[in-house]
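hey so u asked for the seq, here:
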Amino acid sequence: MSSEPAVAKDAVLKRSERLAEDTPQVQGYDFNQGVDYSKLFESYVNTGFQATNLGLAMKEVNRMLDCRAQPLEEDQKDEHETDDFIRRRSKCTLFLGYTSNLVSSGMRETIRFLAEHRMIDCIVTTAGGVEEDFIKCLAPTFMGSFELNGRDLRDRGINRIGNLLVPNDNYCKFEDWLMPLLDEMLEEQRSKGTIWSPSTIINRLGERIGDPSSIYYWTAKNRIPVFCPALTDGSLGDMMYFHSFRQPGLVVDILSDLRRLNTMAVKAVNTGMIIVGGGVIKHHICNANLMRNGADFSVFINTASEFDGSDSGARPDEAISWGKIRKDATPVKVYAEASLVFPLIVAETFAKRHFAGKESPQETDQV
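ran it, structure tokens below
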């Protein structure tokens, strides 16, 4: 009988170093306990892969909300701030960012819930993230399929967003609603010297929509500023372009919004960032938090990878190197498609606290 090759045995049966005693063990949910969704999500932390990141994201958001629930000290009260929208309201100023596709989808209702109950302090989104909300107040978006033929849809005047369908007539209705409001804003600019910025335009539209299904109906009502640094990059921009021929002269000041956003970050006691998607909304929030040497709490949700050096794909550790997240923070990135995981995060954090009657006064004291 031949002996085992020593080199093979040493390679296969290499002895392990002992792990630290407090190293968590992998343990999934046992359905023999019945169906308990809270315990299921609690088990995610030790499940592994993106389930662990999702579980950690829920913990990170709850840390934001624990901080936000603490009352301000006397010397932290923002009594001299004249801008209602950027006045410090709690121990943790919460920045929410999302891209337009979320508003096109059923995520709109999740975001509206947060605005309706004043659970966030600031929104940063894209032009589509603004206009799609108002358009849904005027006409519905429909379910379709990723496989539908683009040439055929174009001939039929139907636009496809992934597996969603938006009839082009919806944008025609949006034009009919928006143009008189642009006329109104131009008249105020001329007669009263009003300086319009993306956030004040969005607020005016929110005041005028008169529909509680709208995100921006509630942000206007609850004095939550909505920043959109690329306001012209969508149907809103198309309508402003057409309006510039009919009634030239409307000026949009983006610098005043930058000052408002950065001021919110600079004077915050603590900050939390929840950024769903990438691109301009992600960088705009992170860069505002650079002004205070980084956010205290952070959750990123997107599917982008870092190998191409994009800001969208950048992990939180890269933001730490820039001073956009604090060095002692415990940020989390969930690599997942947002429509799968964002409602679960909201359910296990904001919504659970709201319906348990444990929300902070800032979340219920609507203007």
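Strands lie at 93-98, 122-125, 142-143, 158-161, 164-167, 226-227, 271-276, 297-302, 332-335. Confidence is low (pLDDT under 50) at residues 359-367.
lmk if thats what u needed
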